[in-house]
From TrEMBL:
<dbReference type="Pfam" id="PF10502">
    <property type="entry name" value="Peptidase_S26"/>
</dbReference>
<feature type="domain" description="Peptidase S26">
    <location>
        <begin position="34"/>
        <end position="109"/>
    </location>
</feature>
<keyword id="KW-0378">Hydrolase</keyword>
<dbReference type="GO" id="GO:0009003">
    <property type="term" value="F:signal peptidase activity"/>
</dbReference>
<keyword id="KW-1133">Transmembrane helix</keyword>
<dbReference type="InterPro" id="IPR019533">
    <property type="entry name" value="Peptidase_S26"/>
</dbReference>
<feature type="transmembrane region" description="Helical">
    <location>
        <begin position="32"/>
        <end position="54"/>
    </location>
</feature>
<protein>
    <recommendedName>
        <fullName>Signal peptidase I</fullName>
        <ecNumber>3.4.21.89</ecNumber>
    </recommendedName>
</protein>
<dbReference type="GO" id="GO:0016020">
    <property type="term" value="C:membrane"/>
</dbReference>
<feature type="transmembrane region" description="Helical">
    <location>
        <begin position="225"/>
        <end position="242"/>
    </location>
</feature>
<keyword id="KW-0472">Membrane</keyword>
<dbReference type="InterPro" id="IPR036286">
    <property type="entry name" value="LexA/Signal_pep-like_sf"/>
</dbReference>
<feature type="transmembrane region" description="Helical">
    <location>
        <begin position="162"/>
        <end position="183"/>
    </location>
</feature>
<keyword id="KW-0812">Transmembrane</keyword>
<dbReference type="GO" id="GO:0004252">
    <property type="term" value="F:serine-type endopeptidase activity"/>
</dbReference>
<dbReference type="GO" id="GO:0006465">
    <property type="term" value="P:signal peptide processing"/>
</dbReference>
<dbReference type="InterPro" id="IPR001733">
    <property type="entry name" value="Peptidase_S26B"/>
</dbReference>
Length: 250
């Protein structure tokens, strides 16, 4: 009887290596995709809600190279007295209209009534803008993210609350699937290791049967159980933030 004829023959090392590499690649791709989704959700939805800020999309090149078109800028309200030279502010062109501009403060002054005013200019412009009154200022840019402005424009500034809740629910479901799959894999490997340690019957007295060695395991780049729990935790926080933001304000 040859090794190939044995029913309990150990798979070839090349086959084990191929499967291990495939699992490693799949785990890595899954982890990177999950991280990308979490980063986008945090930058676009969760962090602005926690800060009480508003995301905007840069549409023109007046703030190049700092804020090129397609940049996501998150603006947080700040008292006019705390705005200083060099701050990048977002302000309304006209009251009660949605159109806004995001430019840098290059001068600070005041009206005859004592109201604070600001002189702004785009980094790529040669001329100053018209003076901006404090009541026009929507806030100061606290952070900006490349390319996410396109996604923000597609979603819309006034995102419905169900969108955040739907994304969080989908992430929770995905996390639970990861946890279940990781626990199932652990149980399968444990049973396989126990079966491998049991002595196999010797078919012929003249042959010495060597029990197959337990299959080698390659450490995966991510633990599905841990990743699933992290996804669930982040999603629960997102749901809590969504509920707080949708609550009536006094």
């Amino acid at each position: 009887m040859t090794t190939a004829d044995r029913p309990d023959a150990v798979p070839a090392p090349a086959a084990r290596t191929t499967r291990s590499v495939a699992r490693w690649v799949g785990g890595t791709v899954s982890t990177l995709a999950l991280l990308a989704v979490v980063v986008v959700a945090l930058a676009l939805i969760v962090v602005p809600l926690l800060l009480g800020a508003t995301p905007y999309t840069v549409l023109t090149g007046s703030m190049r190279p700092t804020l090129p078109p397609g940049e996501l800028v998150v603006t947080r309200p700040r008292p006019a007295a705390d705005i200083t030279l060099g701050d990048v502010i977002t302000y309304q062109l006209r009251s009660n209209e949605p159109e806004v501009v995001t430019h840098r403060v290059v001068g600070v002054g005041s009206t005859s009534e004592g109201e604070r005013t600001f002189i702004t200019r785009g980094d790529a412009n040669n001329l100053d803008d018209d003076p901006v009154r404090a009541v026009q200022v929507r806030g100061v840019v606290v952070y900006h993210v490349p390319y996410l402005g396109h996604l923000n424009s597609w979603v819309g500034v006034n995102r419905p609350g169900w969108l955040l809740k739907g994304v969080a629910a989908a992430l929770i479901l995905y996390g639970l699937v990861l946890v279940g799959g990781g626990l199932r894999d652990r149980l399968t490997r444990r049973h396989a290791a126990l079966d491998a340690t049991e002595p196999a019957p010797v078919p012929e007295p003249v042959l010495v049967h060597v029990a197959p060695a337990p299959p080698r395991t390659v450490r995966r780049p991510n633990d599905p159980v841990v990743v699933g729990l992290v996804v669930c935790a982040v999603s629960v926080v997102a749901l809590a933030v969504a509920r707080r933001s949708s609550a009536p304000r006094r």
